[in-house]
Structures are given as C-alpha cells and as structure tokens.
Prior knowledge:
By secondary structure, the protein is an alpha/beta fold. 36% of the residues lie in helices and 15% in strands. It has helices at residues 2-11, 22-33, 52-60, 78-87, 124-134, 155-160, 179-188, 207-218, 228-231, 235-240, 250-256, 265-273; strands at residues 14-18, 37-40, 64-67, 94-100, 111-112, 140-145, 147-149, 166-167, 176-178, 195-198, 225-226, 246-247.
Amino acid sequence: MAGAIRDMVQNMANLLIFGMGYTAQALAARLRGQGWTVRGTGRAGDLDFADRGAVAGALAGASHVLSSVPPAREGGDPVLDAYGDLLRGGAGPWIGYLSSTGVYGDVGGAWVDESAPVGGGRRTARVEADLAWQALGERVRVFRLPGIYGPGRSALDRVREGAAHRIAIPGQVFSRVHVEDIVSGVMAAMGAPGGVYNLADDLPCSQNAVIEEAARLLGVPPPPMQTLEEARLSPMARAFYAENRRVANGKAKRLLGWRPDWPTYREGLRALSATTSPSIASAEPAAASSDQA
C-alpha cells in the first residue's frame, strides 16, 4: 500500500519541459529541489525533441507539461506541430505555455491586462502560437511574460560588459519580471484555474531608469544618452523600442495568490548585485538585445 501511495505522489509531480531555456531551467531547479521529476528537451535537457518515441513516453508519464519553445520564424508552433496530437483531448496533464506580452503590441504606454486585444504588434507568429495553446482547452495556463532578468541576464551584466544603452525616447516604458518570480507564478498556477496570466512586476518604467540604477549599484557612470540612430542597434533591438506599454498583473495576484518577491527592478538588481563581482569589463559597447520574452 505504501509503495502504491509513493508511486501516485511521484506521478503527480512529474514535469516534462519542451525547451530547457533560461526560465525553464530555473523552474526545473526549484521543482527538483522539492522532489519533482523533471525531464526536458533542448541542450540542457535529457530528451531529443526529434525522438518521438522517447518524447511520447515522457508525455505518457507526465502530470505536468510546460512549453517554453518560441514559434518558428515562418509561423507555427514547433511543439504543437510535432506533438499536438498527443496533447489534444479533454483528459491529460496540466499544460503551461510561456508566451510574451509582445502579443499586445504598442499601446502608447497604456496599461494592458489579459482582456486587452492581441495581434496588433510585430509578433504575429507569437500571437498565433499563444492562441493555439489556449485552444487546447481548460488544462492550459498561458503565461505572458515581459522583459525577463535574473542571474547572468540583467542590466548589471550589460553595464559591466559595456553593452548597455540609454536611448532618448521620452515617455517610453516597459515592464519586466525577475526569473524567479516567473517560477513562483508558474508553480502557483499549478493549483489554479486555467487561462491567461500576465506575470510582470509592479513598476513599469523606462529602460534608462534600469540602466541608471545598475550603474549606480556598480559605482560607475551610466552610458551616455543616445538617439536610436546613434546607438546603432540591431533590427531586433530597435524593434523593442517601437512598442510602449505597461503590463498589469492584477489577475495573477487575485487568482493565483501570486506576489513578486522582487516587486520592482530596484529590489531585483540590488539582490543580484549582492551576489556578483563589482569588476567592470572594458569592452567596446555592443548592440543591445531585446529584453522582451
């Protein structure tokens, strides 16, 4: 009897992750620390995405499934295209999908919540994937994420590397979220109703303010203010500045009982700066990359 109960508990704590990227690895680490079995595809995983037999076997034993795989450039969701037939149906595991607040497009700095229209921005393929995952039914939780930061991936790192920019665009604001707050939000949603949830911190602000705070914590001058033309950003990074919005997180707070441990970039950067070296790289400034997930 004890063995049967143990097996049942283990089967209820078995996660399969498609795409063991930055955020998914943080989630896997937290859950493994709590006794979960976590398998995944990608370079950090133990499964070959193209090995249908192995993936199908992992799916059969999974109580929870999460995809962090972005849509293909030409459209379509790689996971649904390959394994949608195994995921569809009324009964089956809990399903989560890491999407992007980029689906809301540019709203001129206004607040957006989960009821806001999608599809008006530059991320057409992401919108299609977001909607396709929702169409799987009530088992699905779609997490729309803004700019993700955390250890090894923050304004502190960009300032150190000489890759940070301050761009002179008055009124431009973005939302962001610490990677560990995404982890806690996904875990809270494992026992909550299906649907779409924005996971963002409490203080949308300009990217310039974040870079300035990072420079202050490191004890160095912030990079000079530049125009978009002077910054010579990559097309992807330049497109990041073409959208302006504030992301509301009230639904996740109400229905998930979720609260970010790092409610603003100030607490998040302060915590990261306490665990990293203060040395500054002397590299020439590099093109900034987009923060949007």
